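Journal club side-thread
Mid-discussion, someone asked how the predicted structure for our own chain would compare to the paper's figures. Pasting it here so we can look after the session.
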Amino acid sequence: MKFYSLKGKLYACDLCEHIEKEGYRINELKTIFNKNIYSQKMINILDFHEEKPLRPYDFEDFTELLQKTIMGDVDIYNFIKNGEYEYYFLERDWCPYTGEDLNESNETYWIIDNRKMRLSKNGLKIMKKDIEYRPRKQEILKKLIPILKKVANKLDLMKWDKIGKFVINSYILNYGQNKFVTIQEKIVNSEKIARFLYSYKINKRPIEIKELIACLNSVAYFMFAKNITICIAAIIILSEWYAEVNRNQEILTDKQVKSKLIMILQELNYQFPNEFYKNIRLNITTFDDMDFEGIIEIIIEVYMDRYSENKYYDLSHKISNSPFTLLYLNNIIENHRTIDLEEIYKTVITFSIYYRIFNNWDKCLCALMMIYIWNKQVNSECRLLSDYELKLMISDILITYDFENMED
C-alpha cells in the first residue's frame, strides 16, 4: 500500500481497526458507478462474515482505502459520522494524506454525495492523482520487464523466498514429494533443531548459516545425508526463522535474508539445474519475483560497466551532497513523508543544470539514488511504500528517461 505520511499510515490503521471492531469484513467485490466518484470501481465491504480481516495493506493506496470504506460506503460513513470518533476520522485538524496542519488558507473538503472529509488542498491533489494514475500502473510495470531482461539475470532480480521455492520444487521434481515430507518431519521432530530455533527467537538475533549447517550435521538423519538434503532442510529452517522471528522483528532486511540463502547454496555447493538458466531472461514474468534493491544495484552495475566506477562514485557523491537533493530529501525525511516523483523530476532538473549534466543516464541515476536514500532512511522504518510501489517508481523513472534507448 502507498502512504504519504506517517500520520496517514497511523490514520489508516486506526480506521481499519475501528471498522473491524464492529465486525466489518471484506467479502466480495461489487462494481458501483457513481458520477461523483472519480473511479468506477468500488468495493462494498459492509459484511459480517469472518473470511478476511480488514487491513490497510488490502488496498493499493490510501485513496483506495478511503474510497472503499468511509467515502464509498454510506453505511460505514454513517457509522463513523454518528460515533464517538467522528472528529478524528472526518474533521481532524491535520490532513490524513500529507500530515500537515489545516487552516483556512489550505483546507478543503473531499465531497461525495452527502459524505465529506476535511483535507488539505495538497491532499486533495494527491487523491485525484492517485485515481488518475491507477489505471496506468500495470501498463507502466509491464514496461519494466523488457528493460530489465536486457541487463540482469534471474537470480539478481528474484526475492529470496522465490529462489528458495525454486530449489525446493526442483528437489521434489527430482526426488519426490515423500522425500521432501520426510525432511520436514525430521526437522519438526528434532529437539536439537527446536533448541537451535528457540535460542534465535529468544535472543532475537540474525540466523547464522554456519551454525545452522553445524546444527543439521549434528542430527542423526542429516549426519550422512547428501548436501542437497541438508540444503533443503536449511532453507526450510531459514524460512521458519523468517516467519516466526524476522517478519515481526525485522532483524534483517529481505536483501540480507537473500544473502543468507545464497550462503546456504554456496556452502553446500548447490548447482542450479539447467532449466533455471535456460532462457533465463524470458522467465522473468512477475513483479513478485523481483527485489527492489536488487533492481537498483543492477542498474548501478550497468552504469559502471558503461562508464566507470570512478564516474559512478563521483556522481553518487554529488547526489548525496548536493544542496538541491539535500534540501528536498531532508524535508521529507524530517517529516516522514513519502517521496514524490514530480518533486524528484524537478529536483533532477535543478541538479542537472547546476552540474551541467546533459545525458539521461546521469539524470536517471540521480532520481533512482534519491529513492534509494529515502527508502533506507525513512521507508525501511515507517513502511510508507510497499515493494510494489517502489518498483512502480523505478519503472516510471526508467521510462521517463528512456532507459531502453539511452545514449550518451
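Post-session note: The longest strand covers residues 107-112.
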